[in-house]
Amino acid sequence: xxxxxxxxxxxxxxxxxxxxxxxxxxxxxxxxxxxxxxxxxxxxxxxxxxxxxxxxxxxxxxxxxxxxxxxxxxxxxxxxxxxxxxxxxxxxxxxxxxxxxxxxxxxxxxxxxxxxxxxxxxxxxxxxxxxxxxxxxxxxxxxxxxxxxxxxxxxxxxxxxxxxxxxxxxxxxxxxxxxxxxxxxxxxxxxxxxxxxxxxxxxxxxxxxxxxxxxxxxxxxxxxxxxxxxxxxxxxxxxxxxxxxxxxxxxxxxxxxxxxxxxxxxxxxxxxxxxxxxxxxxxxxxxxxxxxxxxxxxxxxxxxxxxxxxxxxxxxxxxxxxxxxxxxxxxxxxxxxxxxxxxxxxxxxxxxxxxx
Length: 356
Ligand code: NAD
Ligand code: DAU
Hints:
Blueprint: E1 2-5, H1 10-22, E2 27-31, E3 51-55, H2 61-71, E4 75-78, H3 85-90, H4 93-115, H5 119-124, E5 126-132, H6 157-176, E6 180-185, E7 187-189, H7 198-207, E8 212-215, E9 221-226, H8 227-240, E10 246-249, E11 254-256, H9 257-271, E12 284-287, H10 302-308, H11 316-329, H12 331-337, H13 341-350
Parallel strand pairs: 1-2, 1-4, 2-3, 4-5, 5-6, 6-10, 7-9, 8-12
Antiparallel strand pairs: 9-11
Helix pairs in contact: 1-8, 2-4, 4-6, 7-9, 9-11
The structure holds nicotinamide-adenine-dinucleotide and 2'deoxy-thymidine-5'-diphospho-alpha-D-glucose (DAU).
2'deoxy-thymidine-5'-diphospho-alpha-D-glucose binds next to helix 7 and strand 8.
């Protein structure tokens, strides 16, 4: 069986659902269920005997060790993290606690578990650390995309905390020979994406007749990957990646934020037109920029393609249409996650810009 952390969040839940569509191997899924974790994401596997969900914190070493020795996983895939850059700017402490200290405690529990395995299981064991392209910092317009050997230059508390966790993972390979793999992926989008992030926020605000907030000039570039393509990359790296290596994951889909928002408006105009006949573009509003906003990310995923034969299935056009359709068909999920604590966050983040 495999052990997943953060499997009730956006990418983790997509990974769990995708895994059970392909394999029968069970998963132990440890998630703290922070504001970003949601058991509704896993509704399709309720009652599935292959899925063992445990609510808990990766910082709880007794719990994590107990689960490792009980379930004896052959691999751990580590998604659990605080993941939103804007939240890290308003309050970095949780990012340090989960992304750095939590990863450290998880590595310590794993080191103790791994040391007790027989030689065969030891050699076969894998720890896959799911990380981000943001650790490489920001690119100018003409620089080549990030390769695995790019220097780390994180710019936000979020990316600094992920960079620190990447370094710890690397050190556990070099110092203790723990068989680790690290993936550094670009921006994901797709079903179950929490509507604090650009794409689901824009879809939600458009349909709620609210402003579509564009930070700064909207010319910042992100490299978008459909979430299920990220899941297939992780599966492939787990299967055939070389211990100690890092793999960059991306979809060769660089887009300026304003273009992403305009594309969303066009699809919504077609699939769910406004009653007054106007385009959703009329709701676009330029707001204050994110402090320290990285200008451009781009991933060179050649290593993953050449060594492991991975390529994404979705283009931006196919993936974004699927995503908009999913949100249109899952308005109850959106309504459930955008009540209560969500409203507080929106007020705190966008209050001065009066986007509501
Ligand atoms: P998310 O915020 O949607 O989900 C994170 C999950 O981790 C939640 O279910 C949350 O409850 C859980 N969690 C948080 N703290 C925990 C703790 N202390 N113990 C146990 N569980 C805890 O994040 P996501 O977008 O799904 O990202 C998953 C991973 O992928 C993160 O490590 C992130 O850095 C990385 N990543 C994300 C993207 C992206 O575009 N979203 C891109 C590249 C890499
Ligand atoms: O690159 C990978 C990273 O992508 C992951 O590691 C992070 O976990 C994930 O959250 C994401 O980070 P970004 O900051 O790039 O994603 P976000 O959706 O928050 O923002 C995308 C871009 O859109 C970014 O340039 C900021 C901008 N933006 C965002 C919001 C929420 C806006 O213009 N307006 C907004 O309201």
